[in-house]
Amino acid sequence: MGGYSTIVVSTPAEGVGLVRLDRPKALNALNHQVMTEVIDAVRAFDADPVIGAVVITGSERAFAAGADISEMAGLSHREVTEQDLFAGWDGLRGLRTPVVAAVAGHALGGGCELAMMCDLLIAADTARFGQPEIKLGVIPGMGGSQRLTRTVGKAKAMDLCLTGRTMDAEEAERAGLVSRIVPAAELVDTAVEVAATIAGMSRTAAAAAKEAVDVVFESTLAEGIRFERRTFHALFATPDQKEGMAAFLEKRAPDYRR
Ligand code: CO8
User: Fold this and answer.
1) Coiled-coil segments, which residues (predicted)?
2) Most buried one in 26, 165, 180, 203, CB count within 10 A?
3) Would the CB of 44 count as within 6 Å of ligand 1?
């Protein structure tokens, strides 16, 4: 878990992998190096059978202040297209392991988009979210116009994408972007606790729950319900279903790691 220069990786609790963005001089702006390292670390955790949940966090001042403007400012249309700029972030899709974003300070542009790529988002009371790309003469480029709109609805998404204004943690929670707000000093501990709770569940059930919730974004209601029911039925073929239900009936804690 070494060799990174823009992130710090650790395992702060049983079953939990933590990735902390660490580019303080640029408020964790997401350059190519950060992207490569985050994707590498998260995918390594996803492949590690010991890890059941991952937390991605930044600093107290910034989760991430967006894509690195100095890295992309001079690029031509041809270069951006040929490099398929930011496509590497798609590496966060299709993971089995649930990923929790723990956001304090600025989560702007690509920073907000990275947080939205995670499965659940816990915010410090200092968090500020926005898609200010319009102020730079561009638009969100890592799914922001799509994920934000699906999450908070057209009214707020248009407001944020067209004016570039930011919203604080309270507004983000009211809008449905954030699952919980905690005092900044407790952010990482809370996120690690939530991740540890998830990691203590049946890994098979957690991956299935994550997949089922995500199907909402890709399907009709009828298709989604059908997917859920088939997946629910399939879980009866797993030892974890037997263990979970037996433990309940025997009034003991389930042990999915045996
Ligand atoms: N890129 C590069 N450097 C940055 C970025 C950034 N996005 N944000 C901050 N920095 C640097 C500043 O240049 C400054 O460096 P230096 O000390 O060398 O001058 C340092 O970080 C500290 O920043 P400030 O002095 O500006 O700090 P303030 O506290 O005064 O302001 C703000 C903080 C409000 C966050 C301000 O820095 C800001 O507005 N930053 C830009 C925010 C922004 O526009 N983000 C969107 C970027 S575009 C984008 O994300 C496109 C998404 C496409 C997909 C992305 C995939 C990852």
Assistant:
1) none
2) 203
3) no
State residue 257's pLDDT score: 80
- Specify the pLDDT at position 85: 86
- Global pTM reads 0.96
Asked if the ipTM is above 0.85, the reply is: yes
**In the CATH hierarchy, which fold is given to the domain comprising 7-200?**
2-enoyl-CoA Hydratase; Chain A, domain 1 (3.90.226)
For a substitution probing ligand 1, which of 25, 27, 60, 86 has the most ligand atoms within 8 Å of its CB?
27
Please name the residue whose Cα sits nearest to atom 19 of ligand 1: 26
Superfamily of domain 203-250: Lyase 2-enoyl-coa Hydratase, Chain  A, domain 2 (1.10.12.10)
Q: Find where tokens 């590496």 sit.
A: 91
CA dihedral (135, 138, 141, 146) positive or negative: positive
How far lies 252's CA from each of 28, 56, 112, 184, in Å?
44, 32, 41, 35
Check if 69 has its Cβ closer than 6 Å to any atom of ligand 1.
Answer: yes
